């Protein structure tokens, strides 16, 4: 069955067919459903900020478009915080899909702000998505958004110990997913592969954990159809990212025998009327 995925859309919503739009992605998802297939649609972050379409209503219309397109899960990127912490939480609450992050922590309460894992039971198999948010959110959004009135940090991203705290949080989420019976565990991360993001790059997280079957990434705007990264046990994990600005939509396919393949789709001459109408009105 297929998993469609996007990342770093950054509110580039006014493209014209056959270039990709949320209406086209919605139609792609619906075409699989019409064929009797199970299909999921997920996003790896940075979707509410970028152009005037985001800033004109602080992300409201983008969430409406993603709701209408039928997204099933997302992870927050650093730019989901650009309109402030209260607004970020409002937008995530307005979404019809869950936001996931295993490493976004409320420090005074010592608990996660969001769920770490989302499970889908499809065709007799359980697929678990583990959400991961870049610790660079502190510096690549506005630091005060993560602080109280006295300048004390009240939110964190497991950024300590040169990457070890992040790897530990991710491993804990993977282990929980496995214990819950997940047949496949897929990372849904906003981490990227830019060297400046070390020690929090997606490939470093994979290399320092075990249990991922695939990893859908964002943040570095990399066009990466299928990169093989070896985890801590020496298993090859598929790492993929679509680039940015809806240049591509990804399609990951899990075959009956468990083999995972990925492809990037750059055009789609289809459109969902309801989603298109929402975008056109905006």
Structural account:
The chain is of the alpha/beta class and 282 residues long. The chain has 8 helices and 14 strands. It has helices at residues 22-34, 52-55, 60-69, 85-94, 137-140, 164-179, 202-207, 273-281; strands at residues 2-6, 40-43, 73-74, 105-106, 111-112, 117-122, 125-133, 155-156, 184-190, 214-216, 223-230, 236-242, 249-254, 260-265. It has a 6-stranded mixed β-sheet with strand order 6-7-9-10-12-11. It has a 5-stranded mixed β-sheet with strand order 3-2-1-13-14, with helices on one face. A 3-stranded antiparallel β-sheet has the order 5-4-8, with no helix packed on it. A hairpin with a 5-residue loop joins strand 13 and strand 14 (260-265). Helix 1 (22-34) packs antiparallel against helix 8 and helix 3 (60-69) packs antiparallel against helix 8 (273-281). It is globular. The two termini are 33 Å apart. The model has no long low-confidence stretch (mean pLDDT 96).
**Portion in helices:** 25-40%
Query: Which stretches are low in confidence, meaning pLDDT under 50 for 5 or more residues running?
Result: none
Q: What distance lies between the first and last C-alpha atoms, to the nearest angstrom?
A: 33 Å
**Order of H and E elements:** EHEHHEHEEEEHEHEHEEEEEH
């Amino acid at each position: 069955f297929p998993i469609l995925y996007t990342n770093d859309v950054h509110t580039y919503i006014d493209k014209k067919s056959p270039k990709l739009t949320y209406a086209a992605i919605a139609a792609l998802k619906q075409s699989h459903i019409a064929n009797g297939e199970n299909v999921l649609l997920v996003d790896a972050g940075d979707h509410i900020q970028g152009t005037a379409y985001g800033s004109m209503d602080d992300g409201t219309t983008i969430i409406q478009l993603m709701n209408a397109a039928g997204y099933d899960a997302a992870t927050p990127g650093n730019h989901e915080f650009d309109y402030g912490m209260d607004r970020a939480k409002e937008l995530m609450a307005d979404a019809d899909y869950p936001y996931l992050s295993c490493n976004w922590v409320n420090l005074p309460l010592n608990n996660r702000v969001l769920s770490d894992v989302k499970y889908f039971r499809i065709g007799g198999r359980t697929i678990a998505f583990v959400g991961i948010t870049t610790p660079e959110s502190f510096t690549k959004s506005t630091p005060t958004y993560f602080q109280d009135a006295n300048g004390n940090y009240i939110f964190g991203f497991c950024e300590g110990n040169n990457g070890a705290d992040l790897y530990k949080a991710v491993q804990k989420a993977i282990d929980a997913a496995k214990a819950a019976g997940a047949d496949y565990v897929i990372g849904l991360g906003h981490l990227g592969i830019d060297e400046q993001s070390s020690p929090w790059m997606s490939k470093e997280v994979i290399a320092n954990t075990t249990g991922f079957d695939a990893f859908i990434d964002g943040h570095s705007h990399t066009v990466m159809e299928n990169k093989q990264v070896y985890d801590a046990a020496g298993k090859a994990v598929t790492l993929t990212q679509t680039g940015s600005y809806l240049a591509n939509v990804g399609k990951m396919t899990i075959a009956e025998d468990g083999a995972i393949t990925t492809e990037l789709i750059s055009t789609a001459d289809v459109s969902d009327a309801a989603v298109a109408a929402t975008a056109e009105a905006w």
